[in-house]
Design a protein that fits this description.
88% of the residues lie in helices and 0% in strands. With 125 residues, the chain is mainly alpha-helical.
């Protein structure tokens, strides 16, 4: 499947989401106003990084491992930001969103690390 058009659409969304976050930060808005945008932007960024490596870089073992480490770190940051949002939110819907991001990020963090381990073991064999 050619994922290149999807990749460019995600980069387009990512640009606008992070522009919104930066605009809120520079205007001095409270964290509650833009935290969900930052989490969504990081989630999209974690989705785009493997495609970025496959499209623009030579997908060597070292590049793929580095990409997986970066993706795992992004998922860890998403878990931390979602936990912060969970403590700040007062609405039930907001809490449900933050809990869902914590669960999905934890699952994807474990899967990313597991898939990287399996890939490295298969290359050694």
């Amino acid at each position: 499947m050619n994922r290149k058009p999807f990749f460019y659409i995600m980069i387009f969304f990512l640009t606008f989401i992070f522009a919104n976050v930066i605009q809120n930060i520079t205007s001095g808005a409270p964290l509650e106003h833009y935290l969900i945008y930052a989490i969504v932007g990081l989630f999209i960024l974690a989705t785009v990084i493997p495609d970025f490596i496959k499209i623009f870089l030579n997908p060597t073992s070292r590049a793929l491992t580095t990409g997986n480490i970066v993706v795992a770190l992004i998922y860890a940051v998403i878990i931390g930001l979602s936990a912060k949002g969970l403590t700040m939110s007062h609405e039930t819907f907001d809490r449900a969103i933050y809990i869902a991001y914590i669960i999905f990020s934890a699952i994807l963090l474990v899967l990313t690390l597991y898939m990287d381990r399996v890939r490295r073991k298969s290359e050694q064999a």
